[in-house]
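Appendix B, record 7
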Amino acid sequence: MADHYFSNRPAAAHDLRLIRERLRGFPFEFWTDAGVFSKGGVDFGSRLLIETMEIPRAARVLDIGCGYGPIGIAAAKLAVDGTVLMVDVNERAVELARKNIVHNSITNAQARVSDLFAVVPDEPFDRILTNPPIRAGKAVVHQIFEGAADRLKPDGELWIVIQKKQGAPSARRKLEGLFEQVEDRAKDAGYRIFCCKNPKSFA
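Structure tokens (predicted):
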């Protein structure tokens, strides 16, 4: 089986590097490595999500599929009175996310290894954020959507970035079956940012 960024234990030889980014006006440094998503720099889709997402100061946030951590760490900067839980199946990515939390002096976030929602606590979240692993297949992506709908507060929001050519229309149809409201919040270079509200599980 090919070694993908959504593998539990990537076999790729290490290629540790430090990258510098500015997100939401804040300067960050992130350690990246081979075997994780977008190791050369924060990808366009994640950057668009970060610049678009609305995070209340006291929000309880979940970043699912966190990679080395840019989305969750940026969210932690915005949720100054809240908390951020970052999860990923990729052990190498989570190790980097933990390193990056400390490196960027973030005190309100933690990262855990988790196959989807396996270790996510039952307490509901105000915001769930994801740049879903499209290459893992539609079934996995839909599990993320379904799990998010079940783990949001009634007034919570799921924020997603997805590329049009990688299934944005079908993703939207799936989301409309799970949420009362699915809003387009940004469109750029073939990417879409969806904000999903009012999970139907609470209807």
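Remarks on this record: Strands lie at 17-23, 26-32, 60-64, 83-88, 109-113, 125-130, 152-163, 179-188, 191-199. Residues 68 and 188 are 23 Å apart (CA to CA).
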